[in-house]
Amino acid sequence: MNEIQGAGVALVTPFNADGTIDFETLGQLIEFQIEEGMNYLVSLGTTGETATLSTEERKQVWKFTADKVKGRIPLVAGIGGNNTMEIVQQIKDFDIQGYCAILSVSPYYNKPTQEGIYQHYKAIAAVSSLPLILYNVPGRTGSNMTAATTLRLAKDFSNIVAIKEASGSFSQFSEILRDKPKGFVLISGDDPVTLPMMALGAVGVISVIGNAYPKAVAELVKRCKDGQYEEARSIHTQLLDITDLCFVEGNPAGVKYILSQKNIGGDTVRLPLVKIGENTIAQIKTEMERLKQSAV
Predict the structure, then answer these.
(1) Which of 44, 140, 237, 291 could form a disulfide with 50 if both were Cys (CB 3.0 to 4.6 A apart)?
(2) 206 marked as binding residue
(3) Which residues are known to be catalytic?
(4) What would the pLDDT profile of 108-158 be if each residue is shown by its tens digit?
(5) 2-226, superfamily in CATH?
(6) Binding site annotation covers 117?
(7) Domain boundaries in the chain?
């Protein structure tokens, strides 16, 4: 799965002021990502506000994205949830044209046991014609998929090829990297830890801040891959504050505001998310100006 190595971005879903999908801006954002050097795109991950989109809207976004990319860079589709039977059906119905893999989040809200998580992914793996990327993000799901469960899945199912890890546990990352089968890869799911994760052996990141600063994220990952950690560290530290500000009032409200300041769509989000407040806006503007002067 060379397609999912390097810098990937979890695309936002732009909305018009009335809340409808802004496909014109989505096309602009896709071109921006490709021109600035992103290695691959993820359509409808968490950052895409997928939970607020209807089934028909998701299909429209996936098709539009594939048609716009036209095979220029790899595409991953986010298809996950806490109703296993529903996710199995969605994957059966998914039009794979233009896509190289599926990213599927560990079941949230239900708080299943590790065996429940294993059986959930087993059911998905049985029907997926595309390789699967596991996604562990305990801060959102309410439960951690342990290294043991990740490794069990990686060893038992040849079409489970990677994990996007956002647990923040370096002991967990290390255990996965130490004991994983050949070909299975670890991907950073959290921008601020991409550099140290890649130093351990992760192959890249699926980024949020990359929506607004794709060139910088792509360069950071490239420097890490080339072992140029001093240069990578400089980019890493430059992006820390703006990345933190993206999450102060909920993702993707922050990064959508940054994009709006770069004339890439508006900052509309769908409820229950709301636009960021004036205090965060002021901080983001200050940080954006600093990054502009630093040529980031």
Answers:
(1) 44
(2) yes
(3) 135, 164
(4) 999 999 999 999 999 999 999 999 999 999 999 999 999 999 999 999 999
(5) Aldolase class I (3.20.20.70)
(6) no
(7) 2-226
